[in-house]
Amino acid sequence: MSTTFVESTAQAVECVRDGDTVLIGGFGAAGQPVELIEALMARDVSGLTVVNNNAGNGTTGLAALIGAGKVAKMICSFPRQHDSQIFDAAYRSGQVELELVPQGTLAERIRAGGAGIGGFFTPTGYGTALAEGKETRVIDGRGYVLEAPLVADVALVKALRADELGNLIYRKTARNFGPIMCTAAAHAIVQVSEVVPVGSIDPEIVVTPYIYVDTVVTVPHPATPASA
Amino acid sequence: MTESIRRADAPLNKNDLAALVAGDIREGSFVNLGIGQPTTVSNYLSPQQRVTLHTENGMLGMGPEAHGEDVDPDLINAGKVPVTELPGAAYFHHADSFAMMRGGHLDVCVLGAFQVSVGGDLANWSTGAPDAIPAVGGAMDLAIGAKETWVMMTLFAKDGTCKLVDELTFPATGVNCVTRVYTPDAVFVLGDGQVAVRETFGVDADDLAQRMGMPLTAVA
């Protein structure tokens, strides 16, 4: 299916349904698709499982989504931060379930999900509480933990630029989870600062080929600026 | 045997400790400095060392912290502090960044710790407090990923207990992964279940062994 270009962030997130698993890009503020999250806030959906490195900061974006009661479960590596009070309260009251995953394992589970890999053995977490209940194996004298792939219904990602086919490039460390999240979602929704004609992104530097991109919306001046 | 161990007159302050770690990093190394105190090591690396810094959020060739007009919200380090890029820097996505780490391509990572065991087990992600919200980030990947994991920490906790222990009492971040421990009182080299002292600062090795409650040997 070819990439659809829509006029508004509201249109972009129309496909999200109750109970969906939603991958949300970003590491801290860098790469966070703030405008797509705000559009999701306006939707009457609940019971979402959200995958992000963190669990929201301050009172906007992902934190607001959790505060609005739309999130049933967070899968993340680092929920606790100095300004994660909304998640902290929701977790302590039992409103939100937490699946804690080491950051590299989180990234690799998403990569595996997008790459059709049925699981992988990683040395990360071997011998720790986060490996409890998981299959382990010693390979060439080293301990490994079996981890499952992670796939999702939807990904919300921020990139710098798309061409009119949907090929993407990102900007600096705002790239972070974006490329792998596009591959692991049935429906990858991407906000970009600009859309340029086909051929104006050098094929050698395309980071996410358009086969992975379903919906693109232009947000020329995002909350976290991505000025080239 | 411990008489041969080099001894300085006073304990190291934080800056001296960071400088000592920096000086031990071999020329041309690829290094990850985690978050927090270990990141101060970068202030003491010399250009002649040609050290390349990796940050888990997808960058090689990280430069110093950014200030003023150089601050770019799209360019941050693992601690979410604005940084700069050096000529020759490269960006990559998260799965590649952690593949680089787990795949043993980094020479050294330097981490903080709550405890390190004689066997090289590391505890730095959770105190195990029942009401704490757990958060691990990249700590477990870093601990087991680099060719060498060095720890920078105080040797004694605020209550006076030694943080270099026979067995961890805090939850493990990784097992058998720490090879060196840098503290204000001494530098330790771990291996084969032995704690060897490379040098001490403001204390004799024998007195230190007594305070720590464990036998210490000199580095072979």
From TrEMBL, chain A:
GO molecular function, one term: CoA-transferase activity
Listed Gene3D superfamilies: Glutaconate Coenzyme A-transferase
Segments forming a coiled coil: none
One Pfam family cited in the UniProt record for this chain: CoA_trans
InterPro entries per the UniProt record, alphabetical: 3-oxoacid_CoA-transf_A (IPR012792), CoA_trans_fam_I (IPR004165), CoA_transf_BS (IPR004163), NagB/RpiA_transferase-like (IPR037171)
Keywords: Transferase
SMART domains (UniProt xref): CoA_trans
Regions crossing the membrane: none
Highest taxon above the source species: Bacteria
Sequence similarity: Belongs to the 3-oxoacid CoA-transferase subunit A family.
NCBIfam families on file: pcaI_scoA_fam
Protein name, UniProt field: 3-oxoadipate CoA-transferase subunit A
Automatic annotation (TrEMBL), chain B:
Gene Ontology MF annotations: CoA-transferase activity
Gene3D superfamilies: Glutaconate Coenzyme A-transferase
Record carries keyword Transport: no
Keywords: Transferase
Pfam families recorded: CoA_trans
Protein name as it appears in the record: 3-oxoadipate CoA-transferase subunit B
